[in-house]
Amino acid sequence: MTRKLAAIIAADVVGYSRPMGGDEAGTLSALKTHRRELIDPKIAEHQGRIVKTTGDGLLIEFPSVVEAVQCAVEVQRAIQDCNMDVPADHRIEFRVGINLGDVIIDGDDIYGDGVNVAARLEGLAEASGVCVSKVVRDQVRDKLDLVFEDLGERQLKNIARPVHVFRIAASVVGQPAPSAKPALPLPDKPSIAVLPFTNMSGDPEQEYFSDGITEDIITALSRLHWFPHYQPAHRRDDEQPHMGGAIRPRAQ
Q1: Do 210 and 119 have their domain in common?
Q2: Fewest CB atoms within 10 Å of the CB: 17, 27, 168, 225?
Q3: Which stretches of the chain are assigned E, i.e. beta strand?
């Protein structure tokens, strides 16, 4: 039994049955075109070897983990560019898992946990995304200009120990960034938050002074005619915010 250390990529077409169901011939043609013009040349460029194909999936080995990650990122970017003018339900999108581990060589095939972890990581990746194990991230973090997002430890199916998983940031592989939430509109009327004052004396009997100041401010505000709405604050130590904490408006 021969073993070796290898960088493994497991890649799979996301939702392959969906475009196949709508246009089988067109989907097969598009996939073959991606393979011929984009994927296979990139694999060769980075000294990779296609171990096997599974219809819509690929298992690839590389002698260098840096080359493996570079290849995955470049392929994902290129496919995203190709998909720009393609309807969403006809796009070919891959998800990729990358691991660095010990593998068993059997002729032209490879087996072992190194391969299995890569396959499980691929299952965690989003469309056009790349997930890697911690050992991969650690090996390339100072060699490639990439951003990694920590997904924490995951218990992967049929893998004895938890695997620490990282995701290459969506912006790196060409995925659209999440749209920012629109800012809340500013109120058309002035608002004032009245927060309870904290008794800093350490004497519980002085608590009424801080309460009294708060109530005096609220009372004064209530007399202002340009405050059409007034909501008083009632002191409750377990709910009221303190100075320096989160601010919640009490008078408007």
Answers
A1: no
A2: 225
A3: 2-13, 49-53, 57-62, 94-106, 109-111, 130-133, 148-154, 163-168
pTM, two decimal places = 0.67
Note whether 148 and 141 are within 8 A (CB): yes
Tell me the pLDDT tens digit for each residue of 10-49.
999 987 655 555 567 777 888 888 999 999 999 999 999 9
DSSP characters over 132-192: EEHHHHHHHTTTS---EEEEEEE--TT-SS-EEEEEE-TTTTTPPPPPPPPPPPPPSS--B
Question: Are residues 65 and 136 in contact, defined by beta-carbon separation less than 8 angstroms?
Answer: yes
Q: Residue 158: give its domain's CATH number.
A: 3.30.70.1230
Residue 52: how many other CB atoms lie within 10 Å: 11
In 3-state terms, the chain is what percent helix, strand and coil (to 5)? 35, 25, 40
Residues 52 and 12: beta-carbon distance below 8 Å: no
- Separation CA 134–CA 166 (nearest Å): 6
Contact 75, 65 (CB under 8 A): no
In the chain, what is the straight-line distance between the N-terminal and C-terminal CA atoms, in Å? 77
Residue 150 lies in domain? 2-168
Q: Which residue has the tokens 């039994």?
A: 1
Cα–chain-centroid distance for residue 49? 29
Give φ, ψ of 165 to 5 degrees.
Answer: -110, 140
> Can you give the pLDDT at residue 161?
92
